[in-house]
Amino acid sequence: MNGLLGAVVDGILYSAWLFIIAVGLTLIYGVMKILNMAHGTFYAVGAYVAVTLLGWWFAQGLPPWGIVPVMILSALVAGLVLGVVVERGILARFAGRDPIVLLLVTYALFLILEDVIKLIWGVDPWIASDPLWVFGQVEFGELIYPTYNLFIVVVAAVVGGLLTWFLQFTAKGKILRAVIHDPEVSRSMGINVGRWNLIAFITGSVLAALGGAFTAPTISVVPGMGVEVVVMMFAVVVIGGLGSIPGTVVGALIVGFVRSFAVHYWPELEVFSVYAVMALVLAIRPQGLFAGVELRKI
């Protein structure tokens, strides 16, 4: 029973973490039709900025209650800087080019940013585990988890709720949905599509950095950590459907629970299980579970 409960709890925690990271990629693709290969590096930069600021925070003897705002600030700073520099400085220059060209550009960015991380923070691990124990522990039956882990679930719920509210119930959200549906018609109606592209890219970058910032206290922050999340992140958006936020929720839950149960019961099949589920979904529905009908202009 404890094994089953542990698999379920771990699946929820892992799904929440995956959703925070992958939903930013989904938003960017939905608006800009760019499959951002550098998204995992944005996650890594958020983790590095967070662990740096957390180390300074605790070194100053400042109160523990401030660590959550510090991590949110870390994500905002990292995501805003990366989003503006990458979108305005690079991607805007390739607007309208073939999607394969944009894919290669973001892959080149991924390689460049990985080396930039090493130049700034070095190659040694960075650790800031204090937040993991500051808030104590919580029990699920006979299992004990750091209470901090629940923040990731809360953050995922808040992010999903805010995005849904913005897109469905606000005037600005309806404008963004129009840009997603048909940027050319939106442009003809006087909507500044370039500005919305920038807003979407910055938001997606901040979400990736947010995932990294809240993950930083639970792991050793090392070079290459962004590479590790790329496979899982793309599995989520491919299963759910590129550009679909509800699909990202379902994709994160599927990948999270499949991986969790594999780790608990068939650890030798951990990575294979995710690929197997992804292959099965693509064989049945190649566009993903929640992908909408795409219009083709002729």
TrEMBL record:
Annotated membrane topology: Multi-pass membrane protein
GO-annotated molecular function: transmembrane transporter activity
Highest taxon in the source lineage: Bacteria
GO BP terms in the entry: amino acid transport
Membrane-spanning segments: 12-30, 42-59, 65-87, 99-123, 143-167, 196-216, 222-242, 272-293
Location in the cell: Cell membrane
Matches recorded under Pfam families: BPD_transp_2 (PF02653)
Main location: membrane
InterPro entries for this protein: ABC_BtuC-like, ABC_transp_permease, BCAA_transport_permease
GO-annotated cellular components: plasma membrane
Keywords: Amino-acid transport, Cell membrane, Membrane, Transmembrane, Transmembrane helix, Transport
Annotated family: Belongs to the binding-protein-dependent transport system permease family. LivHM subfamily.
UniProt protein name: Branched-chain amino acid ABC transporter permease
